[in-house]
Amino acid sequence: MTTDPQATPASATPASPVVDASPQGPAATTPLPLPDAAVESEAAPASSPKRPTRAEWVRIAIFGIPYAVFFLVGVPTWIFPASWSLTAINIGLDTILLIMALAFFGREFFPAFTYLRTRPVRKIALLFGLWFLVVIVQASVRFALYGGNPQVAENQQQVINALHDGALGLAFSFFVTVGVPVVEEIFYRHILIGKLSAYAPTWLVASISAALFAYMHSHQWQDFFSYLPLSIVLTLVYVKSGKNVAYSWLFHALNNSIMVILMFAMQGALQNV
């Protein structure tokens, strides 16, 4: 029987894995990938955020449409008895919106606090520095608009009145400092920027979100420019933290908490005088 000297053993063909005869037995090894080939174990970078699913759009609609209606037409006080307190009506509506926000987006909101696992002191200190910067810019804007005798924004005056509405004021202070920032951050940042940036550039949806947030707090045109610095910084905090809604909520809650403390302190000082 003759053999072909040009024949190649089957075990050495390129299509077969190389077999290592070791004491542990043969172990098949696959060829190394080509230089230009993608490694399967590495996650391919996403070119754009993931688009919301149909179920997510349902949640966005159920929460976002009622909030947008209140944003456009205001609190429908005419459907409530005239004897009802406006503070109580606001607390009731804020409670409903907060429950809806946490029920639909709590699984995305609470895990976002893991952002503070690394360098928490530095990140929280940054929020205090940004708050101080916002206060300076807002004061400069109000001085440019009103001169040396700046008026109190109507939105702030309504908050002051509600905070001093007896026992309801204490409940309202919770929503101002904790609950309302949750609702607003989920709507203006998490939805308008985080979700819609899958369909439009982040800078565009972020600009729209900042403008709408400032407009929502305005009762006259001067209020818009007074709230715009805070709105811009909130937007930057959210975007620069990797669209982390918990971090932007912390800044929002920090700002509102300091303002509530100052309002109570000023009221107490006036009463003592």
Textual characterization of the structure:
The chain has 273 residues and is mainly α. The chain has one domain (54-272). Helices cover 64% and strands 2% of the residues. A two-stranded antiparallel sheet has the order 1-2. The longest helix is centred in the middle third of the chain and has 30 residues, at 166-195. The model is unreliable at 5-30 and 33-47 (pLDDT under 50).
Give the quaternary arrangement of the chains: single chain
- Average predicted confidence as pLDDT: 83
How many H/I helical runs?
8
**What is the beta-strand fraction?**
under 5%
**Helix- and strand-based class?**
mainly alpha
Largest sheet: 2 strands, antiparallel
For the record, the count of structural domains works out to 1
Rounded to an integer, what's the Rg over CA atoms? Answer: 29 Å
Low-confidence stretches: 5-30, 33-47
Helix content percent band:
55-70%
Order of helices and strands: EEHHHHHHHH
- For the termini, the CA-CA separation is 119 Å
Q: What form results from the Cα inertia axes?
A: globular
Biggest β-sheet: strands ordered side by side in the sheet? 1-2
- The total strand number stands at 2
